[in-house]
Write a structure and sequence with these properties.
The chain is about 25% helix and about 30% strand. It contains 5 helices and 8 strands; from the N terminus they run E-E-H-H-E-E-E-H-E-E-E-H-H. The strands form 2 sheets. A 6-stranded mixed beta sheet has the order 2-1-6-3-4-5, with helices on both faces. Strands 7-8 form a two-stranded antiparallel sheet.
């Protein structure tokens, strides 16, 4: 199966989701999700940006082995961002599991979020189509309850969810996905 090599750009302020081709030169030069995500980040975000400002970006990038059926490495995803805990260093979170493989199967090697929404929203991706939806029904819930509620809202008990809880909603500098 040949994967579509795309990055999904999500502008929360404008409410838009646009696919663009993955920068294959960078993908070859910065092999792996951590290196590729970092390359995108440093090329697009000013070093002195405030971590909570709309100019900051949050990137979720899969690796070259993600979704290929092999392990280890077949389920990896890395998030890269300017750390709100330090205000000056790159933050990174790594995960394994279904979310990254489902993102890749939907046709995206990564997601780049920027801007700020005026209201709570969530990104819904299904069959390669991405849209922002109202998240008022999940705001304030813990992560497990958020997962359950979102699965109910989209009508798919097997939907894969990446979410924050109340700590992230309240801009706690140590909050995690």
């Amino acid at each position: 199966m040949a994967w579509t090599r795309n990055v999904l750009r999500v502008n929360l302020a404008a409410g838009t989701c646009m696919a663009e081709p993955l920068n294959m030169a960078w993908a070859h030069d910065y092999l792996g999700q951590r290196g590729l995500a970092t390359r995108y980040f440093v090329s697009e975000v000013e070093a002195k940006v405030d971590p909570f400002s709309p100019e900051n970006k949050l990137l979720f990038v899969t690796g070259p082995l993600t979704g290929n059926g092999f392990t280890p490495g077949g389920t990896k995803m890395t998030a890269v961002y300017l750390s709100p805990l330090t205000n000056t260093t790159l933050g990174r979170g790594a995960t394994s599991g279904y979310w990254a493989t489902y993102l890749k199967a939907a046709g995206y090697d990564g997601v780049i979020l920027n801007g700020a929404s005026l209201k709570p929203v969530y990104l819904y991706i299904n069959d390669g189509k991405a849209e922002l939806r109202d998240a008022a029904n999940v705001w304030g819930l813990g992560t497990r309850a958020t997962e359950d509620r979102l699965r109910g809202l989209v009508g798919n008990r097997d939907a894969r969810v990446l979410c924050i809880g109340p700590a992230g909603e309240n801009l706690n500098r140590a909050a995690m996905l």
